[in-house]
Specification:
The chain is mostly helical and 173 residues long.
Amino acid sequence: MHSSKKHHFQGTHVPLQAVIGYQFHDVRLLERALTRYALSKEQNLGADAHMDVLATLGDAVIELIVLDTLVHAGVTEKGEISKIKMNCVNMSVLRALAERISLQQSVYWGKGETNMQIWTSGRVLAECMEAVIGAAYLDGGIIAAKAVLQKCGFFKTIPKKPKTDPSMDVQGR
């Protein structure tokens, strides 16, 4: 985990970029996506130096990508789309993706967060994953965000074929 010492990007996230399969053109977006609000406050980094807005954007981008994928897969019923979206775009799925790529090792945590190992509970890692997707979207558009999700294994959570039998579960298995 990165300590809460004053940080500078200086290529420290090259391994993360390899893992997510995307090279940022503007690495400051990635740095922002990996900077927690607590650290930005501790170090007086400024209102636009932390991940929060990128996490909100990333959440919306992920939902858009899921909806686009479902529509292109031929899913047309609103109720089915809502169920699949709910099962794909949630804290558990996004947290699992973040854990799969060891995202917590790349995030700049505040002192209290580091002491409490906050990444081990709740929604925190899911928000970090959303922020990375938001940053990828700003850097390279929807194609970049989708590529990162693909590389992280996100699309394994989306059914490959539309559900046709009402007795089947949401995953179509």
